[in-house]
Amino acid sequence: MNYKKKTILDADLKGKRVLMRCDFNVPTGDDGAITDDSRIRKTLPTIQAVLEAGAAVILCSHKGRPKNGFEEKFSLKVVRDRLQELLGIPVELAADVVGPEAREKAKALKPGQVLLLENVRFMTGETKNNMELAKQYADLAEVFVNDAFGSCHRAHSSTVGVAEFLPAYSGLLVKKELDVMGKALSDPARPLVLIMGGSKVSDKIGVIDHMLTLADDIIIGGGMSYTFTAARGGKIGTSLCEKESFDYCLELLKKAEEKGVRIHLPVDAVCGDHFAADAAPQVFADGEIPDGMMGLDIGPKTAEAYAQVVKNAGTVIWNGPMGVFEFPAFAAGTEAVAKAMAESSAVTIIGGGDSAAAVEQFGLAEKMTHVSTGGGASLEFFAGEELPGVAALLDA
Asked: How far is Cα of residue 357 from the mean position of the Cα atoms in its chain?
């Protein structure tokens, strides 16, 4: 995949109307208020840079998964309100996406002004990369900028189709994602350590297979580690297990040995007798989890061993927690790995999703080299797959 793309810094934007795809898919509480605005904040430098270049900006994004056109709870009105506060200038909201109001407001836009379109997923053809819809987006502007890394793995009208009709540049956030993660794959400081967690082996096969040719060490934790234990004949009680992945796990261990890649598996586990925050934690050796108990975190010896591997690393890429970090009694393993990364002198990359939520929860996000804004997109990136939203941008 070519990560070298033209950015807004290569474009002449003076006097132009710029359509910018953002990722404003922010979480909201029961009252509709935004509970975490970091996705909005991370796009601010690109918006400000485009405004300073003398352009007018038309922002667009998805939010949630609306099923039938306009739904109040998925409206971007709450995003508009927060954007105005953060930018310190008025942000117009169009009541439609490419309808009469959006077209009229886009046409009237002057350099230095900002317009936000309604949720692109209110349009039926959006997720099918409908070209007629893409053309309607393109008709609103003269230049397209993609700053929504979290949506780059999807070929939608507002991420890929629109680039067929307008010169397409990367925003500063997408540039940072590609620069940092691209270097980690093409020219990493070594040893390169991959940490894989989360519940399922099957979700991570693409990444593990691709990284087996690049990594020096692969650390396995989280629910997926019990599948490895069971595949090797260990007892895992009622822990998560994918029997259909047994052959893959054994084959992987064999391949890793042949390639000289060190695979690190848990030596102990923190378990509970049911899946809940109030379960009483008990530690068992790996492969000796009794019936009726389930592994909910890596154990203290494992956490210590994993922290040591991280300490000696040159580059660490982490995707997926070590346990159920949302339950305080089962958060220690994930926190130990996060702390080891925060204290390490290595290039540290958090691959979005739950790992990003975990380092936020532990107050360690600022200590990482890079926290990706795209869970699914970063997974596909590290699996060596081409991201359609990136491929659609102009090559540098």
From this structure: 10
8 Å CB contact between 313 and 192: yes
> Of 243, 302, 242, nearest to 270 (Cα)?
302
User: CA 391, 392, 394: angle at the middle one, nearest 5?
Assistant: 95
pTM summary value? 0.89
In whole angstroms, give the CA distance from residue 331 to residue 352. 18
CB neighbour list of residue 135: distance below 8 Å, 6 or more residues apart: 161, 165
Please list the residues that pair with 317 across neighbouring strands: 194, 349
**Mean pLDDT score across all residues of the chain:** 95
Per residue in 78-117, pLDDT (tens digit) is 999 999 999 999 999 999 999 999 999 999 999 999 999 9
- What pLDDT score was predicted for residue 316? 97
Please tell me the distance from the alpha carbon of residue 353 to that of residue 320, in angstroms, as a whole number: 8
CB-based burial label for 44 (10 Å; 0-12, 13-18, 19+): middle
Q: Which of 148-157, 203-212, 245-254 has the lowest mean pLDDT?
A: 203-212
Supply the pLDDT for residue 3: 80
Instruction: Quote the CA–CA distance of 146 and 141 in Å, as a whole number.
Output: 13
Q: Which residues are catalytic?
A: 39, 200, 353, 376
Q: Is the dihedral of CA 139, 145, 149, 153 positive or negative?
A: positive
Alpha carbons within 13 angstroms on the beta-carbon side of residue 217 total 24
